[in-house]
Amino acid sequence: MDSLVTARNVTKRFGSFKAVDDVSFDVGKGRILGLIGPNGAGKTTLLKAILGLTDCDGSLSVLGLDPFKERKQLMQNISFIADVAVLPRWIRVSQLLKFMESVHPRFSRSRADELLASTDIKLTSKVRQLSKGMVTQLHLSIITAIDANLLVLDEPTIGLDIIFRKDFYANLLNDYFDGERTIIITTHQVEEIENLLTDVMFINRGKIVLDAPMDDIAENYVELLASTENAEKAQQFHPIHVKDVFGKKVLTFERTDRAELQGLGELRTPDIADLFVAKVKGAAA
Amino acid sequence: MIRTQLALLQRELWEHRALYVTPAVIALLASLATITGQATISVFNEAVDVAIIGGSNLGEAERSAAISALMMGIAVLIFMGMWILSIFYTLDSLYAERKDRSILFWRSLPCTDFETVLSKLLTTLIVIPLIAFVAIVITDIVILAIWSIWLMIKGGDAAHLIWSAAPLFDNWLATFIFLFSATLWGSPLIGWFLFVSGFSKRSPFLTAFLPLAILPMLEKIIFGTSTIGETIVSRAMPKPLFRDVDPSTYFSDDRISADQFVSVLDLFDLGGFLTSVELWLGMLVCGLFTTAAIYVRRYRDES
């Protein structure tokens, strides 16, 4: 696997607090990785370290570069949204495009024009005249008009309505993602990107709780919906998490043979959000 | 590198339209004041004639000196506007992007913190004085043209009385030298403003000026001296650029009555200025503050 991002024992301290705590992982070429974690889990700090916006201990390499020391080179080959709606309010859309053309060697003006043509955004408008959704659209159009090896999206669709969110992810997959590029994405609306991801990483309190390809999830995790008695019986297989749903129990198992659970209730692959809760709460218990 | 820098400089002009609007407004007001002044003179005193206003009763050298004085007045007016503009621009330059959080966008582009901070410094050190220079030249031409029209209406020979007497190029060259000398001379203050703009959490204006006011006071109270205050104030005007003449009395009677043509350039001791230790110390201070501003932008977490 060609590794685009290689992290070994990456730690970021703020005083005595470790926002990212001894984290190691790889992100391969052509993967779409979902980075999932509660607020304050260290997701954004980790992304910042990857983007060279903050320095860290341990070894971190992105596209073979040291992100903090070789930031300019790195920025020429990746594109990212650190936060939505942070475009300068005074700038005109046409000025923004012109500026991007001048400073970014991989920015395609024609691609940006194409993307903007499908929106209501006018080139003569100033950012302050656009609605919040339009600002995000503009930002995403600019970012996806960069021919980058690595695209990093931190909560890209926050504040957008559902139609735009769906469109955005569909376009990301159909137009932008070509199997060569790599995307790292964080979002609270996990269910919306679940089908898009090739890999998923859970992060909690600065630690990686789970780092796996999506295919492995179905193989290694199973959710059992069972009556209270059957749930008692299923306890012997050491569920990582148990919750009550409408008088029944939902048990999540890790690396437990499905055949053993057969007959105790309804089996299914947990969705990412549920699995996340199971992993995080399970780890805390 | 150069392409990025030019784009960054253009960006500053897009964001801070005051950079060219302010000199334009001053120029316009000065021109309007000239027209108003002449109209008033014409209305209230028809007897005032070419001899006085056009200076046709003066000798060639005096008339040239009088026009130089007028042009210097215009230059000083725009220069003062430029200083105020430089202060406000520099204090805002690194603060605004943090206030509206657009720094997160700017830092997602392949521009280093060095390049970005440099573009703000160059805007103050080069772009603002250049704009001021252009504004001064245009205002000079416009106001002299207004005078010419007035003179011609009164039957005077403007070509002779004004245009052949006005030492335009000497004055403009002197203005150019003065603007850039003043900027370099004031650069430690500019560096300080840039640094404050980069680090202050709120109200960069107060953060920048409070120490400039308090330090001299403390010095006065504790040591009874006023070195700090004098040093700060002295940076507003590049005194070492001037020979041992006081520009405020330069056109006083004895000089005007001298028959000899005097160029404004003779006021300057450029060599002495460029080799003065204070100038280079000042630029060193500016460099240190700028470096500090770059480090703050690079290392501080903005989210």
Kindly describe this structure.
- The complex is a heterodimer of chains A (285) and B (303).
- Chain A is an alpha/beta fold.
- Chain A is built from eleven helices and 13 strands.
- In chain A, strands 5-6-7-3-8-9 form a six-stranded mixed beta sheet, with helices on both faces.
- Chain A starts with a strand and ends with a helix.
- Chain B has 303 residues and is mainly α.
- In chain B, 74% of the residues lie in helices and 0% in strands.
- Chain B is built from 15 helices and no strands.
- Chain B has helices spanning 2-15, 18-44, 50-53, 60-93, 96-99, 103-106, 113-153, 158-163, 168-185, 187-199, 204-223, 227-234, 253-256, 270-274, 277-299.
- In chain B, helix 2 (18-44) runs parallel beside helix 7 (113-153), helix 7 (113-153) packs across helix 10 and helix 7 crosses helix 15 (277-299).
- The longest helix of chain B is centred in the middle third of the chain and has 41 residues, at 113-153.
- The interface between A and B is medium-sized, with 31 and 26 residues.
Helix proportion range of chain B: over 70%
Q: What is the alpha-carbon Rg of chain A in Å?
A: 21 Å
- Fraction of residues in β-strands of chain A: 25-35%
- Nearest-integer average pLDDT of chain B: 85
Largest interface, with counts of residues having CB < 8 Å to the other chain, equals:
A-B, 31 and 26 residues
Q: Would you report the number of β strands of chain B?
A: 0
* Beta strand count of chain A: 13
Strand content of chain B: under 5%
Give the terminus-to-terminus CA distance of chain B: 28 Å
SSE arrangement of chain A, N to C: EEEHEHEHHHEHEHEEHEHEEHEH
Which helices and strands, and how do they pair?
The complex is a heterodimer of chains A (285) and B (303).
Chain A: E1 3-14, E2 17-28, E3 32-36, H1 43-50, E4 57-62, H2 71-77, E5 78-81, H3 93-103, H4 109-117, H5 132-144, E6 150-154, H6 162-176, E7 182-186, H7 190-193, E8 199-204, E9 207-213, H8 214-220, E10 221-226, H9 228-234, E11 241-245, E12 248-254, H10 258-261, E13 266-268, H11 272-284
Parallel strand pairs in A: 3-7, 3-8, 5-6, 6-7
Antiparallel strand pairs in A: 1-2, 1-4, 8-9, 10-12, 10-13, 11-12
Chain B: H1 2-15, H2 18-44, H3 50-53, H4 60-93, H5 96-99, H6 103-106, H7 113-153, H8 158-163, H9 168-185, H10 187-199, H11 204-223, H12 227-234, H13 253-256, H14 270-274, H15 277-299
